[in-house]
Amino acid sequence: MRIDTAEKKPSLDQKLHKPANHLFVFLEIFAREGGIQSYVKDIFRTYSGLNVGCQADVFLLRDSLDKSDPLEFDNLKFHYFQNKSPQMGRLKMAGTLLKFFLQKRPQHVYCGHINLAVLIQTLCQPLGIPYTVLTYGKEVWEPLNKSEQSALASANNIWTISRYSRDRACAANSLNPEKIKMLPCAINSEKFTPGSKQPELVEKYGLGGTKVLMTVARLWSGDIYKGVDVTIRALPQIAAVFPEIKYLVIGRGDDQPRLAQLAADLGVSDRVVFAGFVPTEELIAHYRLADAYIMPSQEGFGIVYLEAMTCGIPVLSGDDDGSADPLQDGKLGWRVPHRDSEAVATACIEILQGHDQRCDGEWLREQAIALFGMAAFKQRLQELLLS
Predict the structure, then answer these.
(1) Among candidate residues 220, 305, 309, 235, the one with its CA nearest the CA of residue 273
(2) In the chain, what are the domains?
């Protein structure tokens, strides 16, 4: 009779109920709104529901207590280091971190941005504390300086949001792909839901009796990769098939005058509606105005595609970026060369004709939730924390 004396690895359930002491360090999550900030908040909300044994401290370099979101969780304690002098704020946080490491010896440190990675490596390595670096997109797509590359290479793990971001980061910075773990963005299916077009918004934007294309994006001159200008260039070709077409652009920024002039030059000013900034709480009603969500962009992931799909809206993205993940390599939407206005026009016409399964709003919503809903996100985060 053979007796197996090898130590059995603890099961996932056993790990879940073992007390854990974690530390998260981020630049900010309350001082501004954005995709990264929403993603981090999803991490915290999910972390708080994992199990009572998980406890974490959260250090926030650029946030202050008086400007914080009312995120209150029994197992998360927030520490704020905003200072009028950025250098002083960073020094104060570094000192507090060192004291915290020496006194409490966290089980694992999660560094929320490449700009903090060198500091975390400097503090963690001499003490033998393992750390993970969270990455998102463009901040790691180009070669980093040697100290930042070293901080990534020395990390126990690197988290990222898409295969594209992983591949770009590895190619640019000679990283080991096996060290990189996936934690894609998540969608709240209770918040983003299908619904009818609100008459007051239809009237406000002059959308009565029209087919509506929509984009949600910052209109910054540094963000022309979002593809709003490409979609405007596609409008004459689309209008030849759908004369009632209009393009609703949600967002603000210094590139709007150029975009408006482009629309005028192409004779489609009456088809382009610049809605300006729309608060997050009003965004869902605006998604419901759309017959198609169009953003031929270059994204690290593209949470807006998931938001649209979960509202039952078909989507179009670029074909060389992180949108491959939410669109499942084209299974859930149209992917076209991101600067090709003719390809955008052709795809928009196909979407508006509505003969493809990818136009089935109910099916789209089901697929998006199954792959990227909060339940899937919780499972992935749980596995990463316990690996």
Answers:
(1) 235
(2) 12-183 (3.40.50.2000), 199-372 (3.40.50.2000)
The strand order across the sheet containing 54-60 reads: 76-80, 54-60, 20-26, 108-111, 131-134, 157-160, 180-182
Helices of type H across 191-316: 199-205, 228-239, 256-265, 280-287, 303-310
Model confidence, pTM: 0.89
- 161: helix, strand or coil: coil
Cα(108)–Cα(184) distance, integer angstroms = 21
Q: Is the pLDDT confidence value at 299 over 80?
A: yes
H helix and E strand count, the chain = 14, 13
How many whole angstroms separate alpha carbon 266 and alpha carbon 39?
38
Q: What percent of the chain has pLDDT over 90?
A: 86
The confidence score (pLDDT) of residue 20 equals 66
SS3 call for 334: strand
What is the tens place of the pLDDT at every residue in 179-237? 999 999 999 999 999 999 999 999 999 999 999 999 999 999 987 889 999 999 999 99
